[in-house]
Amino acid sequence: MLGPVILAASRSDRMRRLISAAPVTKQVVDRFIPGETVDEIVPIVLELTGKGLELTMDVVGEDITRPEQAAAARDAYLHLVDRIKDLELGERVEMSVKLSMFGQALEGGHELALANVRPVVEAAAAIGTTVTLDAEDHTTLDSMFAIHEELRKDFPQTGCVIQAYLYRTDDDARRLAANGSRVRLVKGAYKEPAEVALQRKQDIDKAYVRILRILMEGTGYPMIGSHDPRLISIGQELARRAGRKLDEYEFQMLYGIRSDEHLRLAAEGHRMRVYTAYGTDWYGYFMRRLAEKPANLRFFVRSMVSKG
User: Fold this and answer.
1) How far is CA 42 from CA 10, 28, 89, 212, 278, in A?
2) CB atoms within 10 A of CB 260
3) Which of 56, 139, 142, 202 is least buried, going by the fewest C-beta atoms within 10 A?
4) Cβ-proximal residues to 164 (8 Å cutoff; 6+ apart), any chain
5) Would the pLDDT of 112 be above 70?
6) Which of 58, 74, 92, 134 is catalytic?
7) Is the pLDDT score of 5 beyond 80?
8) How far is CA 262 from CA 41, 69, 192, in A?
9) For the whole model, what pTM was predicted?
10) 209 with 187: CB under 8 angstroms?
């Protein structure tokens, strides 16, 4: 059960300093985060879209302690929108945002996050794309869903993320499926207590299938966030049973993980979107990628040993 240990380390300043200082870390991080600036990421965007893939872009960063940092995050996303517009890829590239970056945890954070994210959603809509609100730990979700509902009044294409391991998610899925929302379903990548979340993998997998069925049978747009071959096959079958066409749902996977599967699904006619992160504040994102999948951790450890 290394996942919880790694997630705890993602909150540790000491571990952040230790891992960041390791000479091999940058090489391994590049597998998941292929750039620090928009200019560095543009070639990746062009390469992936040129292969028939779609993208959702994430400017990484979560440790926001001042309103000025939240405003800077907003401006970073507005700059990203401008570049997507320049590339004429509004129909292929959307954005994912964490409301913690927009000031959600600060004093008056709910209103601050809404005020900061709204211009990004407006700018995205103006170039033909949209924004998905990422789910964070369970204490932030009521605020996230309220902001999502408020944004959808003017921008109904705004999406959100739900996490299969939380007990509340069945009810959230029913509500979102009934109101026509774009919803990404993931297993969950935060360290949550047993009082609010399932702990065993097999239980989480069962919940994922159950909740995905709710989304497929609803009126919204399901986004299947998984690298698990079994869940991908089940997702295809649930879509078929629900009578959904290939453009009425999509698959989403992380950049750097199962890239061949990205191409296979796209070649079969599925909408396949690659979650592509960039930025300098990569530590929390990187540690959750290690926690999600043992193979990611093994990859990192092998690199540390071979390069150390």
Assistant:
1) 28, 20, 11, 33, 11
2) 7
3) 202
4) 185, 186, 187, 188, 198, 204, 207, 208, 211
5) yes
6) 134
7) no
8) 18, 34, 29
9) 0.87
10) no
**Does the pLDDT at position 3 exceed 60?**
no
Token look-up 């599925």 returns 270
How many Cβ atoms from other residues are within 10 Å of residue 114's Cβ?
19
Note the pLDDT of residue 20.
Answer: 54
Residue 8 near residue 287 (C-beta atoms within 8 A): no
Task: In whole angstroms, give the CA distance from residue 75 to residue 59.
Answer: 11
- Tokens describing residue 246: 């290939």
Catalytic residue among 152, 184, 258, 288: 184
Of residues 213 and 17, more confidence is placed in: 213
Q: Which amino acid is at 292?
A: E
- The total number of residues written for the chain in this structure: 308
Question: Measuring CA to CA, which residue among 39, 53, 155 is closest to residue 87?
Answer: 39
Q: Token match 């809509």: residue?
A: 125
Identify whether 134 is a catalytic site residue.
Answer: yes
Residue 261 sits at the vertex; the CA angle it makes with 255 and 264, to the nearest 5 degrees, is 125
pLDDT of 305 = 45
- What is the secondary structure of the chain as a DSSP string? -HHHHHHHHTT-HHHHHHHHHSTTHHHHHHHH---SSHHHHHHHHHHHHHTT-EEEEEE------SHHHHHHHHHHHHHHHHHHHHHT-TTTEEEEE-GGGGTTTSTTHHHHHHHHHHHHHHHHHHTT--EEE----GGGHHHHHHHHHHHHTT-TT-EEEEETTBTTHHHHHHHHHHTT-EEEEE---S---TTTB--SHHHHHHHHHHHHHHHHTSSSEEEEE---HHHHHHHHHHHHHTT--GGG-EEEEETTSSHHHHHHHHHTT--EEEEEEESS--HHHHHHHHHH-HHHHHHHHHHHHHH-
Express each pLDDT in 159-173 by its tens digit.
Answer: 999 999 999 999 999
Closest CA to 20 of 276, 289, 28, 301: 28
Look up 31 and say whether it is catalytic: no
